[in-house]
Amino acid sequence: SVERYKKQLDEVRNNREYDTLTKEIEFQSLEIELCNKKIREANVKVEDKKRELARTNDLVADRQQALEEKKNELDEIMMETREEEQVLKAKAEELETKIEPRLLSSFKRIRKNARNGLGIVYVQRDACGGCFNKIPPQRQLDIKMHKKIIVCEYCGRIMIDPELAGVKTAVEETVEDKPKRKRATTRKTAASKKSEESETKLS
User: Fold this and answer.
1) What is the DSSP letter of 180?
2) Hey, CA dihedral for 113, 117, 120, 124, is it positive or negative?
3) In the chain, where the domains are located
4) pTM (2 d.p.)
């Protein structure tokens, strides 16, 4: 456009045409400068993105290597525990035959819906071991009685007491650690001493 307008300048007939053409040339020159500025900014952005892409590729390569190492570790652990897993699966299948189908299906449903895969949890610090919501004392007493299956009203997991799960509570541990005091014997000895003194006085 600028070249065309410059050629037209040689063929102008009056001042008005000349002014119009010069203004058009100035406008097109400004447009060129603006476009060049945008191109420079775009080139800078392209360079930044290239550097960012290189960093991201390095990071991906590092993460991929770490993933491969973790996969190898996991495969080794799975190989080690495969035999134990098979034994436990066989034992679970054997036990499933002894459980009521209705209870077994409901247990499997609860376990499937549970976030951590636990269908049965024990009471921990007066709360459910799955969702950690507080359990009322009466409910805890019902759980300890073992008369019926009680589920958590918040998460739906089956709840049992720690004794049934084979877990020692903090209270039981502290009771076992405390030494037993012999108070009764000391009282008896004091009473026997008084009776002996009274006998000697009488004699």
Assistant:
1) P
2) negative
3) 2-73, 101-177
4) 0.39
